[in-house]
Write a structure and sequence with these properties.
The complex is a heterotrimer of chains A (381), B (317) and C (97). Chain A has 381 residues and is an alpha/beta fold. Chain A has helices at 14-25, 39-51, 62-74, 85-100, 130-133, 149-166, 176-180, 245-260, 263-266, 286-300, 318-326, 341-349, 366-378; strands at residues 8-13, 27-32, 55-58, 78-83, 105-113, 119-123, 143-144, 169-175, 182-187, 229-231, 269-272, 279-283, 305-310, 312-314, 330-335, 354-357. In chain A, strands 2, 3, 4, 5, 6, 7, 8 and 14 form an eight-stranded mixed β-sheet that branches. In chain A, strands 11-13-12-15-16 form a five-stranded mixed β-sheet, sandwiched between helices. A two-stranded antiparallel sheet of chain A has the order 1-9. Chains in contact: A-B, B-C. Bound molecules: thiamine diphosphate (TPP), iron/sulfur cluster (3 copies) and magnesium ion.
Chain lengths: 381, 317, 97
């Protein structure tokens, strides 16, 4: 019996677990460029992909890495790249090409301190907004934020499944602390891994952008006589450039709605002790672990606090937060930046939140968030 | 007999005819290059179903939109890595990059050097029109010194790339330069490039009467084309270092590199996925890698070798 | 001395040995660039008076046999940037001289 047939526990870093999750769900093409703290993803892929019949290429930079995985995806492979802040910035233009050409792929960003070269080896969560608004134009993004190596594994699988389901690039928004954390990861037997694959057209030729009722078009494979044309220009469902206001509205509308209409299917929020809570702590990634501890400490002190953890950071759960705000709850936002999820939370709840930001490259200490909870308790909004 | 009216063209099976006439200006050389490419495909009996054309952005980049094949119009500068991704994932497909000089050698310059170094099995058709056509005639990395462009209104201060030479030195398996006037040789060169295993590169000097010629003493479409007839010299096995192009001076065209076939980058990537290769010893793997590396001796000989005396070139037809 | 008549006969005989072409045009694609006209080695193409939908004058074939005729060299179809003009070898029997 091979190890794939039974569940196995492995002691893995978050980076390695993300690579293993990708392989488990069928990723067979990786192109990337080394950058701390994501290099371990590439290193794991370099060793593992050939073993499973996959292709690994270290590219000349991140511009080419993302271009190559888009090509790899059209060529029929589940494809991924991994990078960190500076490389993520370089990838932004072709992230947009991926959105526009509806190319399923996964981009891992193991966040470090920024801007610029910033803190290569230390923690940051400064790409919360960039993951959503980093490329030009209007779009809806999907981004997942794991808090442990186990979730790096699980979310890598989910990221691919969402990418293939919605024919769009998905961001696995990790951070340095989670990426470098070593923990036991339970790897389920292969048969228990749910792997979604893109819809394939039933007729030849099939236009590459002709959507089904769910607004997602089947994706014609190369080399089968579909003669597809794929362009980053505004195009009709045949891929013909059509730069008219009508076409732009039609296309943008569909690209955005194919995500918006399925927001509930995509969003994954952990609500822990929210129902009776007076204070809701919003956090994601490594920060959620400190926040969970802070909430426990608060409860021990008799403060009714709860954790609202963004396992998916995008799409953002605006409606749910608004609902909680209308129940009179107060909000604390903890993250490793100067206030990004904060903007979204305040916009959703229409009230000020207590912000517990850190940006020195260290994760939060639970008492820092606890202080925030206490501050919220005494605030008068 | 007068001219006979037709509603079909012999290359129509390779074209998205419903999109013709194309966007290119009257007398633009791009259609001539595309014509030569399709003829070469036809001659070789290449299956359009198994051929993928990848372009970047620019007038040349629009090519992908006219071929009746799987085709990609990507982003500015990134056609090469996009194509590399396709070829690495699907080595059974013929992958052709068709793009402009600015796209491939300015914004995409790093990628093309590395693609040549890796010897990935793709064919690159690089159109050198001395200019950024699409954006209205700005300086390109191929613009000859002193030329007037909208961003070098006092004359270009910079020296252009010798694209063909650069590719030969970077490790390409096949490198040629032709012009749109040398249409038949261009077609032959493309046939060779397309049948070559490994990174093959054809630079095509092609007129942009609209954005370059007009500002640089080429009065019209015919003048722009005649420039190549006047200045091009065909040489046999020219030295890649002699590929420099100077304004209003003779320049060399021909085959700068034609190396022997050997396993390409994509071959090697797939070899690596084979069990016995993975399970053999590191020493054996190293031996295999060294046996299958690029043989750059051809290049060394070329560069060290004597120049072959230039022969006056004439229009080859 | 070769007589004029003899010369004419010789020319015709020689002309019969070289290939001849029929020239075709997809008029709506022509952009009137004049490249085919300028590069035809036999100078048998001229701008016509006709105007196509896009407002361009497509070329016309004006042959003066036996010498000034299309020789099916194929250059016009290679130099035309617009997939508009092409030649086919003339069938020997219907060659009009
Ligand atoms: C990132 C980016 N920068 C700039 C542009 C604008 N742009 C479009 S085409 C082009 C130049 C194209 O020149 P070349 O590759 O020589 O193609 P040509 O039009 O001459 O065929 C530029 C600068 C762009 N589309 N994207
Ligand atoms: S601008 Fe120049 S390169 Fe572009 S289509 Fe016109 S002639 Fe061709
Ligand atoms: S085939 Fe040759 S001779 Fe005949 S019209 Fe064309 S260019 Fe002229
Ligand atoms: S070369 Fe083509 S486009 Fe130009 S005039 Fe002749 S037929 Fe027309
Ligand atoms: Mg150019």
């Amino acid at each position: 019996m091979s190890s794939k047939d039974i569940a196995a526990d492995e002691f893995l870093s978050g980076d390695a677990a993300a690579a293993e999750g990708a392989i488990a769900v069928g990723c067979r093409f990786f192109a990337g460029y080394p950058i701390t703290p994501s290099s371990e993803v590439a290193e794991r892929m370099a060793r593992r992909l050939p073993e499973v019949g996959g292709i690994f290429i270290q590219m000349e930079d991140e511009l080419s890495s993302i271009a190559a995985i888009l090509g790899g995806s059209w060529a029929g492979k589940k494809s991924m790249t991994a990078t960190s802040g500076p490389g993520f910035s370089l990838m932004m233009e072709n992230y947009g090409l991926g959105i526009m050409t509806e190319t399923p792929t996964v981009i891992v960003n193991v966040q470090r301190g920024g801007p610029s070269t910033g803190l290569p080896t230390l923690l940051g969560q400064g790409e919360f907004m960039q993951a959503r608004f980093g490329t030009h134009g209007s779009l809806e993004a999907i981004a997942l934020s794991p808090e442990s190596p186990q979730e790096c594994f699980d979310f890598a699988i989910r990221a691919f499944n969402l990418a293939e389901r919605f024919r769009t690039p998905v961001i696995l928004l990790m951070d340095e602390s989670v990426g470098h954390l070593f923990e036991k990861v339970r790897i389920p037997p292969q048969r228990n891994i749910e792997a979604v694959s893109r819809k394939l057209p039933e007729e030849v030729p099939y236009p590459p952008f002709r959507a089904d009722e769910d607004l997602v078009p089947p994706m014609p494979p190369l080399g089968d006589g579909h003669h597809i044309h794929v362009t980053g220009l505004t195009h009709d469902d045949e891929g013909r450039p059509e730069m008219t206001p009508k076409m732009q509205e039609e296309l943008m509308g569909r690209l955005v709605n194919k995500i918006r209409l399925y927001k509930d299917e995509i969003m994954d929020i952990e609500e822990d002790g929210i129902d009776d809570a007076d204070i809701v702590v919003v956090a994601y990634g490594i920060t959620a672990r400190s926040a969970r501890r802070a909430v426990t400490l608060a409860r021990e002190k008799g403060i009714k606090a709860g954790l609202f953890r963004l396992k998916t950071v995008w799409p953002f759960p605006t409606e749910r937060l608004r609902e909680l705000a209308e129940q009179g709850k107060k909000f604390v936002v903890a993250e490793v930046n100067t206030g990004q999820a904060l903007i979204m939370v305040e916009q959703a709840t229409r009230k000020d939140a207590v912000f517990v930001g850190k940006y020195g490259g260290e994760p939060h200490k639970p008492f820092e968030i606890l202080n925030g909870i206490e501050e919220a308790l005494h605030a008068d909004n | 007999m007068p001219i006979i009216k037709a509603d079909k063209y012999p290359l129509d099976p390779y074209l998205r005819t419903e999109r013709l006439p194309h966007v290119w200006c009257p007398g633009c050389g791009l259609g001539i290059v595309l014509n030569a490419f399709l003829r070469a495909m036809q001659k070789l009996g290449m299956d359009p179903d198994k051929t993928v054309v990848v372009s970047g952005i620019g007038c040349t980049g629009r090519t992908a939109g006219y071929v009746k094949m799987d085709s990609f119009h990507t982003t500015h500068g990134r056609a090469i890595p996009f194509a590399l991704g396709i070829k690495a994932a699907r080595p059974d497909l013929n992958v052709v990059v068709f793009s402009g000089d600015g796209d491939l050698f300015s914004i995409g310059g790093n990628h093309i050097i590395h693609a040549a170094r890796r010897n990935i099995d793709i064919t690159v058709i690089a159109v050198n029109n001395f200019i950024y056509g699409m954006t209205g005639g700005q300086l390109a990395p191929t613009t000859p010194e002193t030329s007037i462009t909208t961003t070098s209104p006092y004359g270009n201060l910079e020296s252009p790339f010798n694209m063909a030479g650069l590719m030969a030195i970077a490790g390409a398996s096949y490198v040629a330069r032709w012009t749109t006037v040398h249409a038949r040789r261009l077609e032959k060169g493309l046939e060779k490039a397309l049948s070559k295993r490994g990174f093959s590169f054809v630079e095509v000097m092609s007129p942009c009467p609209t954005a370059f010629g007009r500002r640089n003493k080429m009065k019209g479409i015919i003048d722009s084309m005649m420039y190549y007839q006047k200045y091009a010299i065909i040489k046999d096995n020219p030295n890649p270092l002699d590929g420099v192009i100077k304004p209003n001076e003779k320049f060399v065209i021909g085959e700068f590199m034609d190396a022997e076939d050997e396993p390409t980058f994509d071959d090697k990537l797939w070899e690596l996925t084979k069990r016995d290769f993975l399970e053999t010893s590191q020493a054996d793997r190293a031996k295999w890698i060294l046996e299958h590396r690029r043989h750059l001796e051809t290049l060394a000989t070329l560069i060290a070798g004597e120049n072959i005396a230039p022969q006056e070139g004439e229009m080859d037809e | 001395m070769v007589t004029e008549a003899e010369k004419q006969r010789l020319l015709e005989r020689e002309a019969a040995t070289i290939p001849r072409g029929d020239v075709y045009i997809v008029e709506e694609r022509c952009k009137g660039c004049g490249l085919c006209i300028a590069f035809c080695p036999k100078k048998v193409l001229v701008e016509s008076d006709r105007i196509n939908e896009k407002g361009y004058h497509p070329p016309e074939l004006v042959e003066k046999p036996p010498v000034d005729v299309c020789i099916n060299c194929g250059f016009c179809e290679r130099i035309c940037p617009d997939f508009a003009i092409f030649v086919k070898e003339k069938k020997v029997n219907n060659s009009e001289q």
